[in-house]
Amino acid sequence: MNKTILITGSTDGIGKLAAIKLAQDGHQIYLHGRNSDKLTRVIAELKTITGNQSIDGFVSDFSSLTQVKIMADNINNKLSKIDILINNAGVFKSTESQTEDGIDVRIVVNYYASYLLTTLLIDKLKASNQSKIINLSSAAQSSVSMGLLDGSLTVSDQEAYAQSKLSLLMWSYHLAKQEPSIAVVALNPGSLLDTNMVREAYGKSWSSADKGADIIYDLAITHLSEDIDGKYFDNDKGDFGLAHPDASDDMKISTLINYTKSQIEKLL
After folding, report:
1. Which of 10, 2, 1 is nearest to 216 (CA)?
2. The whole model's pTM is what?
3. d(CA 235, CA 24)
4. CB 215, CB 235: distance < 8 Å
5. CB 42 within 8 A of CB 33
6. If DSSP codes are grouped into helix, strand and coil, which group holds residue 40?
7. How many helices (H) and strands (E) does the chain have?
8. Which are the contacts of 48, defined by CB distance < 8 A and separation ≥ 6?
9. What is the number of other CB atoms lying within 10 angstroms of the CB of residue 93?
10. Distance between CA 70 and CA 13 in Å, rounded?
11. From CA 15, how far away is CA 170, in angstroms rounded?
């Protein structure tokens, strides 16, 4: 049965590759990108590659939560339901390390934007008979500082990225408990995959980007998707497993979620 699938950060990298694999099955695919011209080109490219004409997209710069909200409004007005939401959008290095609001760009793009978008689309996910959220975390996970979340603390690119990805993972565990009708899984797609983001950050890669796209597809569609709710899949190990200890700390998760809510309210 064809599904309605939204993939953020899907004009490049593993998001784009996963979109191709899913579109080849005939699903209704919605891409997301921050550049309108590039998004239009990629939509046309994927239609040609896959022969699937049911591909469309939404534009939003995730460094602006106002734009994220506008995108969510557009999605809510256009779609009757969402079967699968893949929160893949992410950034490591950027010409601007902070957003216009003075918050680290990794925190906003990698965590706040996914949190806000998902929250605003939750009714569309509940409208599906069997909905699923896949949150792209990372092997890089570091204990979250509230100072980084509110912009009062500055850290290295690597540390900010690691904290943003653990934030996403901790929220995934919270969301799985909060929304029992929606299957939620956090995913490390694989370390140093051959993508533009990795090459810009490290100048090298360990594995093909297809490794990440394949596991996204598997978690979304195939047998691996049968029992994923509230779990973490580590694609470096090829199995579900344990994440950072903070992801199992209910008090730390509660603190993170409460602080996240207050910060997003301030930023909107």
Report:
1. 10
2. 0.94
3. 23
4. yes
5. yes
6. helix
7. 10, 8
8. none
9. 14
10. 24
11. 22
Residue located via tokens 């579109």 = 23
- The number of domains in the chain is 1
Range of the domain at 168: 4-267
pLDDT surpassing 70 at residue 226: no
Rounded Cα distance, 38 and 45, in Å: 10
Q: What is the pLDDT of residues 152-181, one digit of tens each?
A: 999 999 999 999 999 999 999 999 999 999
Residue 94, CB half-sphere, CA atoms under 13 Å: how many?
Answer: 19
CATH code of the domain covering residue 36: 3.40.50.720
Q: Among residues 132, 24, 28, which one has the least CA distance to residue 86?
A: 132
How many whole angstroms separate alpha carbon 71 and alpha carbon 249? 33
| Short-list 113, 101, 237, CA closest to 164 | 113
Report the candidate in 184, 197, 179 with the shortest Cα–Cα distance to residue 232. Answer: 184
Identify whether the C-beta of residue 151 lies closer than 8 Å to the C-beta of residue 229. no
Q: Among 31, 30, 26, 29, which Cα is nearest to 2's?
A: 26
- Cα–Cα distance, 162 to 190 (Å, whole number): 14
Amino acid at 156: S
Structural tokens at position 141: 């996970």
What confidence category does residue 191 fall into, taking pLDDT thresholds of 50, 70 and 90? Answer: low
Residue type, 194: D
Q: Which residue is listed with tokens 């999605």?
A: 75
